[in-house]
Amino acid sequence: MQDGVMQAWLESSHLAGGNMAYVEELFEVYLDDPTAVSDAWRQFFDQLPRDNGVVDTKHSVVREQFREAAKNKLKQAGSSSAAAPDLKQVKVLQLINAYRFRGHQHANLDPLELWKQPQVPDLTLQYHDLSKDDYDTEFNVGSLAVGKETMKLGEIHNLLEQIYCGPIGAEYMHIVSTEEKRWIQQRLEGVLGQPQFSKEKQLKVLKELVAADGLEKYLGSKFPGAKRFSLEGGDSLIPMLKELITRAGEQGSKEVVIGMAHRGRLNVLVNVLGKKPADLFDEFAGKHANLKGSGDVKYHMGFSSDFATPGGDVHLALAFNPSHLEIVNPVVMGSVRARMDRLGDSTGSKVLPITIHGDSAIAGQGIVQETFNMSQTRAFQVGGSIRIVVNNQVGFTTSKREDTRSTQYCTDIAKMVQAPIFHVNADDPEAVVFVTQLALDFRNTFKRDVMIDLVCYRRHGHNEADEPSATQPLMYSKVKKHPVARELYAERLANKGVVSSEQAKDFVSAYRDMLDKGEIVVEEFREMKSHSSDWSPYIDQEWDVEYDAKISKERLQELGKKAATVPAEHKLHSRVAKVYEERLKMAAGEKPADWGFAETLAYATLVDDGVHIRLTGQDSGRGTFFHRHAVLHNQKDASTYMPLNNISDNQGPIEIYDSVLSEAAVVAFEYGYATAEPKSLVMWEAQFGDFANGAQVVIDQFLSSGEQKWGRLCGLTLLLPHGYEGQGPEHSSARLERFLQLSADHNWSVCVPTTPAQVFHMIRRQQLRPVRRPLIVMTPKSLLRHPLAVSELDEMTTGVFQNAIGEIDNLNAKKVKRVVFCSGKVYYDLLQARREREQEDVAIVRIEQLYPFPAEEVAEILKDYQHVKDFVWCQEEPQNQGAWYNSQHNFWAAIPKGANLTYAGRAASAAPAVGYLSEHNKQQKQLVDDALTIK
Description:
- By secondary structure, the protein is an alpha/beta fold.
- It is built from 32 helices and 27 strands.
- Residues 74-84 have low confidence and may be disordered.
């Protein structure tokens, strides 16, 4: 409102003394929802005094302002005001607002009509001092988007029931943004709760329900008792997904990534993605292709295809996933982010993530909160996602709400990011399609998550061999009598004259005929084009494949100088400035390189070659141990500068983000990213190595076995700080033993580098070698600044990563009586102790890559020690941890025949390390003595 118009409005009778009660009531409505009052009142209330940015809800200051305004009016008018406006008008606005806030609690959502929500007093006329006696009275409808300014109360009330208490229950008033709330109101209220669809659209939806029901019945009869985690009861998921994909394509999306658990997965594979029914039937029959690896059950498998839309073909990818519910969701987000980056899409307009949840799982699994928390952050945002809950109101055998969650709805978790939540009755497919359109349009408009709660039921048990009536007798007595959604919708369309019962039966027969033929049943299916990066160079590659690692000293020095140069106006912290001064000396060859500089050099060489690098972790910009300093913070204005992003004009991008405080979701996200983009170097760094515990599901179910189960290659690198410096049980061990226990089939490499040159070569090898398997690195802590853990530039310009390193002191091999194998920091403890003792009869061999074990390299090193009979494995970890139990078979195989192998290290322990520094030092001295003392 223009200032002049506002002034004229203020000078009207609105604020006269007799209107005070009216104004205060109106103010209450405004506090609940600013969109509920007229623009004039909203602007007036917006100008009221605020307490810390919030209107003073104690009303003391507000009332005083109202009184002052009223006094001024009286003085100007010289008499009392005109009659006060009808207070019932405000009550009507409050009623409208109540339906917007709480109408969903009276919505008709449950197809079985078992879900009885408590009566809400706010939704009664009496609560607002109204009654049916007022039905014929005309009232202003405020911001109710029904196309009229005034209506009779009876009409208003009926429309509110129709819009907010029908088959759609909309929760959106928790959203702070007035713009977003108004957008939803316009869309919901504009159709008066009754979306209209063309006959063509209705028939399409009916055919999709026929397909959803038809596949399940076909599988049930052809493979009775087989587990298929049927969609029956939630059939509307199929038209929902097809509408999402079609509309996304219309609006410019090029790719859609879907993540879902078991329920309905086979149906989605066949009826949405276009998997051949014949292929699915073969899997039921136990047939499979002669592929490498273990394979997986059919309801874990992914699929890719193209789907025709009016806006062009859309590439679909259904993510592979294990039985750990919800863990696939951040994997999907990571895959989407990789595709966005590849397409130059910073907003998510070209790639759409869809995640499908179970009602018990979404409320019960903490990974959901982690993924929501990531959704708007720089490192992990994907422009919003569509989250669908297949809400069959029972989790395996648990159906009591008070046993599955502590909230009213399973979707309440979405409120933490102010996502709108649309509950919809799955037996009303037109309401489902409307909500689907609404959700996608909101996501694409505001780039935020949206939740659709598809309230349905489960026709069978958790799986088809389960007996659900044993634990849900009332529910399943209803389920047995309840018609399927296809039948209900066919009858509805028949009553409207859209389709005859004969036509509806013909649709069923035609779909069954297609299944009998075993061919693709999705009309929109198209042969897949090349939408992803080319993985062909990385398929069937062995670890020892050759690659070009050469780099000149001149280029290395030039890159080192660029990586250590900071603009003069960017004022560094004094300690950081010292680090960069030292790095310039290292680049010039005046000082040997430390760990941080060598790592930085590796990144600089790769980005200079055009490689994209992505590194995330809770403190990865600086580095937990103050060693990396890749992101530099200006001490004057807190701006940041990344030297690695200023290497050359045509360099590859490098992204280094301090991540949200999460391990599981972040590692899953990075796994998803790495599985979608082979050309990028993707890395995650733990704050401390044992924090990887929080991501154990991702490590077990995806990282270690994804290639074996699903043929999914992934080059993700985990940097896990590991080393015993007396910091106690929690921050000493990255649990090396767990990674070694999972090592098989050349599934990944596990490395423990001990020099800056080694970390330089290791990082470059991970990217340059045409192999895309995970790299697990036990990175150091104290070695980051250890005086012996340094390397000359020449060590980086020549050679490659050494999987094993032999003795570096000039010992006479013939005099050696014992050879000590070790990995990691303990090497320097052994080296220093041996030098102090001036001992020349013990050689030390470092195993820098524990898996795959470098048998050939170790054999070459041991050529000079074939006479030695005394071999020792020395480690800092307790005997039942570290490498001893999982790698000693490799050590035994490496030593000469007849030689003996013994252990030097801490005794077995339930805890990774002791908590007392004095005890730690005592143990450390003892294990070094045990390794070096020949008895």
